[in-house]
């Protein structure tokens, strides 16, 4: 079996071999999220741009190629049929661990079955301290040359960051007991270009975080950080900033390299000037916003500036946009955009309540996922959205106070590619013509108040649900 697996491994390109070996950084049976993995590959400089694609798309191609070659196992399949996470089979894991040791690619410590002591300079160090009572510390190891450090679990017995002067990659995963004191020397890691802190009680960053001039990716999902130090706007090389509901920092317009920013809170303290700065980040590909504005802040001038900034991003490089609220109904006039966001592939605005579908939406040639809230779902709504050529997932959410004016008919010449359809609205009559939505796999209907008559003729649905 080892010989057969080695043949498959040897058949990989150099880039794919390197990316596969990197998976030995993760603990056994660990579910690896695709987006996190490809970001690390990029930060490690494993990814070479292929043709006109960007680094992220090329890295995703690497990921799916490893799945197609059965070197990794997909664990979550999205609406578009793409895997969003993976695991490594035990036999493949044994193979890549042996290759990683042989090539001094990764040194692991903490887990009793794979506690390794490198005879060479340690370049990448993976420490698994999850739920282990008697663990072997790494104090005896030479850390001066470590460029990548991944810690899973408690950091109590991990050497201080001051002992990793050449560190370029730092990932602290599921570190529930991590304290701000452990990060006090992080600003001295002048070569650091990737930082991930997940699942900890960290609520603040060191004030001197702006000293990390090489930092390109900052992933703070799962932390309690709600405010940024003022110096963060000095990170001019930063391409990715992920948080879980933090406010926009003043001076964000200086961060012209940002390509991904989410999830950022826009509330009463967010100034109009700050919203204008947001619109100047024209390299942005992915943006997530949470609107927590009170009634007096939803004035025409304030909301118009937000919409104008989003429109500038949409006419540049924006591919994914998510705008959610804290439960309040906010009417955002997206119809005022002068030009359609031609590159947009995913639009999530189901928490908002639009008066009508914007005219530019009919020309969205690349849109694959749409979650939208409207005052009322009409036949015109279905016709406009049904004409989108590559739409795969649609969520329609209508106000419960809206009165139905006409029956809804899903004809057999619209929604030709749709695989997932979620409809939450009030209708008098909902009818599906024979042959409608031929590729549909999953649907969910929540229809209320009016007497309903649902007639459907659909091919092999994986899940059909109607909730009163």
TrEMBL record:
Keyword Repeat part of the UniProt annotation: yes
Domain Disease resistance R13L4/SHOC-2-like LRR positions: 145-457
Pfam families named in the record: LRR_14, WHD_DRP
Taxonomy, superkingdom: Eukaryota
Keywords from the UniProt entry: Plant defense, Repeat
SUPFAM superfamilies linked to this entry: L domain-like
GO terms for biological process, alphabetical: defense response to bacterium; innate immune response-activating signaling pathway; plant-type hypersensitive response
Residue stretches making up the Disease resistance protein winged helix domain: 25-96
Protein known as: Rx N-terminal domain-containing protein
UniProt lineage: Eukaryota, Viridiplantae, Streptophyta, Embryophyta, Tracheophyta
